[in-house]
Amino acid sequence: MKKKKGNLLQRIMALMLSAVMAAGTALGTAPVNVLAQENEGGGYNQTQESVSGDTVTEDGVRLSSEETEVEAEPAESKEAGNLEEAKTDAVSGDDVEREDTAGRQVDAETVAQQADAETVAQADGSEEDGIITSGDDWSLATTGVLTINSQEGMYRWGYVHSQEIQLNVQDPNNYNNTYYAQKVTSVILKEGVTSVSHRPSYPQLFGVFERCINLKSITIPSSVTSIGEQAFDSCSALESIALPDGVTSIEKDAFKGCSSLTSIPLPDGIKSIGEYAFGSCSALTSIEIPSGVTSIEESVFSDCKALASITLPDGIKSIGDGAFSGCEALESIELPDSVTSIGDFAFSRCSALKSIELPDNVTSIGEAAFRLCALESIELPDSVSSMGGRAFESCSALKSITLSEKVTSIGQQAFMECSALESITLPSGVTSIGKQAFDGCSALKSITLPEKVTSIGQQAFVECTALETVTMKGETPPSLGSEAFKNCGFVTSSSKGIKVPAGTVTAYKQAWTAWADYIDDGDDGESANRLKTAKAAAQEALSKITVTNTTEAETYKLQSAILEAVKAALEKAGMDSTDVVVLMVSFTTTAATKEAPGSCSATVKIICGEESDTVSVENRPIDLFGGGQDWTLDRNGHLIITSDAGMKDWVDSLSGSLNRQNVI
Q1: What is the layout of strands, in order, in the sheet containing 580-590?
Q2: What's the pLDDT at 82?
Q3: How far apart are CA 16 and CA 598, in angstroms?
């Protein structure tokens, strides 16, 4: 003890001298290095000390006198006035937490108080006694075992640990030189500790075990209910951890950078897992999320490169931004039906992800959500109404995709570098094609842009080297960004690959002057004009043709009658009708009775050359039991015959029918 007392007295004298010399700098004198070091067999060694006017925290952490104000927290401070008692008594160490504020000078009284705290903190042990350092309810043994006996001990250790890291952050040359943190190889938390965290009132700077890079194991008692923010951040040697059943929350960054952690069973009682909680746990291979969790937060498993198995419970409503980004071993994942949104970059860089089925309740897909995935095909459910830019960027294996009819815009770079994409059908409600939306889709051969499209972004189809046909449905040319079709197949082959609606060639050429030579003149829409005329004729024919209870058995006659009406209309307009085809797609009736009329619905397909469309009539009333050439029988029993031919046709219809019974 004599040697220990002597060293402590030397340090106290040195600290007091430090304050005096620091005050002397105000008179223009050069700073003097006065912080004593405990060397084997000696006191102050100037060759080993280069910090001017330093002070020392309760566990030997150095703070610059120009950057430090020492304030003891009322519940945790020691009486600082009795230096003599601290020198002579081997008092067990208490940590005195201080808040360090830059820009305030340390006076002699403050140095004396700090020297007293230093004395108390060191008096209860040394490496020779098997203890490296200790404080109130915590101790770090020379074996590397850090023991924390209470929640208060957790707070005290956390303060000392954070101060040590903070000093190293301020000194770039010693960024990772955290003396105590590197000594810790295992942690034992005693029963009574409830949270692996700092004191709630303490500003969160660093986690309580952050950068304990040699920490391999930790014993957590059943009393613990939460794992605090950054608690084990960058504990790169930690291979496994057992969380007690009482844990209900894992806070932000709790296990981020635990690159040796291979597994961590999560207790069923967990309700929340914070952002980045397991980010960059590059050895983690599987995870099962407890049923009480309702959202996967931002980047919670980002860059978990070995994560191949993920189990999500029913009840998960959202997949947060970057939640699984960089999970390079993930080949598939099953999303529960409860999921309604997929955030930005949610599965970005999942380079092995080949398939994923999106639930019917998903309404939004965020920006770059599936960027750089290995998806070969994907179907967006009808519930999806928004799809962010870059959503499928660089999915080089993607061959087919089905978009929801509710999607109204194709975001910028949405399918950029999807080099295997051969075709895509855009929903009829799409109004805009974003910048570089299909840039580098080198297998895309044709695409049809719906009539509601009003804008096409810059380089939208640049480097689509196989693209031979772009079919425009809108009669009004959309605004077109620069280099929209640069190096497309029809451009390099100098062919007229842009197809526009009938009668709009001039308008498109005037609006798209840079691409006028690639707009197809064709017959300037002759086929489309014929189809338009044919549709009008078919619609009129359907509205005028007599429909009766017996019409269902005569659909061929109905089809023939419509065809005749269509051909007559085309000939009247001076158009060719030789290749016009009329097909009955559907025909349903509800028979008329004496009590109520019936109804008829029909859909007819009209084909004119390469153009085709459908014409429909819905729930047209039926008031006739029957009818034929020049005769009708209505549901009131009135038979009307208008000619001899009609009489003959009526008589012929009586065989096998009930018409006679209906005549009044």
Answers
A1: 580-590, 598-608, 611-622
A2: 30
A3: 108
Measured in whole angstroms, the distance separating CA 465 from the mean position of its chain's CA atoms is 31
CA distances from 19 to 24, 53, 434, 495, 503 (A): 9, 7, 66, 86, 92
Tokens 């006017």, located at residue? 53
Beta strand spans in 400-536 (E)? 400-402, 409-410, 432-433, 446-449, 455-456, 469-472, 479-480, 498-499
Asked whether the beta carbons of 443 and 464 are under 8 A apart, the reply is: no
d(CA 471, CA 72): 76
pLDDT at 619: 67
Tokens of 629: 């050439």
Are 217 and 248 spatial neighbours (Cβ–Cβ below 8 Å)?
A: no
What angle in degrees, to the nearest 10, is found between the helix axes of 555-572 and 526-544?
130
CA distance 32 to 65: 12
Q: First CA to last CA across the chain, in angstroms?
A: 131
How many whole angstroms from its chain centre is CA 519? 40
Which residues of 563-636 form beta strands (DSSP E)?
580-590, 598-608, 611-622, 624-628, 631-634
Neighbours of 109 (CB within 10 A): 12
- Whether pTM > 0.70 for this model: the answer is no
604, 530 contact by CB (below 8 A): no
Rounded to the nearest 5 percent, the helix, strand and coil shares of the chain are 25, 20, 55
**Tens-place pLDDT, residues 599-644:** 777 788 888 766 788 887 776 676 565 666 666 666 666 777 778 8
Tell the burial category of 266 from Cβ atoms under 10 Å away from its Cβ (0-12, 13-18, 19+): middle
Question: What is the Cα–Cα distance from 368 to 176, expressed in whole angstroms?
Answer: 35
Does residue 41 come out as left (phi exceeding 0), alpha (psi in the -120 to 50 range) or beta?
A: left
Q: Is 253 left (phi over 0), alpha (psi -120 to 50) or beta?
A: left
Helices (H) and strands (E) in the chain, counts: 11, 35
- Please say whether the beta carbons of 154 and 197 come within 8 A: yes
- Could you tell me where the beta strands, DSSP code E, fall in 479-573? 479-480, 498-499
Angle at 314 between CA 343 and CA 353, to 5 degrees: 50
Per the listing, tokens 């969790």 go with 293
3-class DSSP assignment, residue 519: strand
Q: How do beta strands 446-449 and 409-410 pair?
A: unpaired
From the first residue on, what is the mean pLDDT of each consecutive set of 10 residues in the chain (664 residues)?
40 42 37 30 33 36 35 34 30 33 33 35 48 94 96 94 79 62 94 95 86 95 97 95 97 97 96 97 97 96 97 96 98 96 98 95 97 96 96 97 95 98 94 97 96 97 97 95 97 95 89 95 66 80 66 58 75 72 77 71 78 78 64 69 77 59 54
* Cα dihedral sign, 196-202-204-210: negative
Tokens of 142: 């020379």
What pLDDT digit, counting tens, does each position of 80-116 carry?
A: 233 233 223 323 333 333 333 333 233 333 333 333 3
Q: How far is 586 from 605, CA to CA, in rounded Å?
A: 9
Q: Tell me how far CA of residue 45 lies from CA of 34, 87, 394, in angstroms.
A: 9, 22, 62
Q: Locate tokens 């397991």: which residue?
A: 278
Report which of 190, 224, 212 is spatially closest to residue 260, judged by C-alpha positions.
Answer: 212
Give the side-chain half-sphere CA count within 13 A for 551.
30
Beta-carbon contacts of 574 under 8 Å, excluding residues fewer than 6 positions away, are: none
Query: Do residues 81 and 48 lie in contact, with contact meaning Cβ atoms separated by under 8 Å?
Result: no
Token pair recorded at residue 640: 């009307």
Single out the residue of 398, 390, 404 nearest to residue 444, CA to CA.
398
